[in-house]
Design a protein that fits this description.
Helices cover 32% and strands 32% of the residues. By secondary structure, the protein is α+β, with helices and mostly antiparallel strands. A hairpin with a 6-residue loop joins strand 4 and strand 5.
Length: 111
Amino acid sequence: MDAIFNLPVTSAPEQVVIARFRLSGEEFGARAERAVIFRAERAMAVAVGEAGVGEVEGNEFGGGEAVVYAYGPDAGALFKVMEPILRGLPFRPAHVVLRHGAAETRFHVDL
């Protein structure tokens, strides 16, 4: 019976950085735009990995927009490492959402 009460201890939820960029067209943007996003994503993955603040997990393209996702224990620290690369991208409008814990706790940054 005691085994029922030995539930695993859950860790704090991962925090998230979600960067959104407007691309040309209504679908996936131009091939050159996607290539720029892929290069930036690889550069952010290296920087985030070297800083030990989390992981750049992937992207989505569609609806004339590119979205890059990164996860880690501290969204602020994660964004600090990613910010120079994100600001260097030429796509506007652009914004970043930092989600701290619960989905209701968000901070928006316009690039």
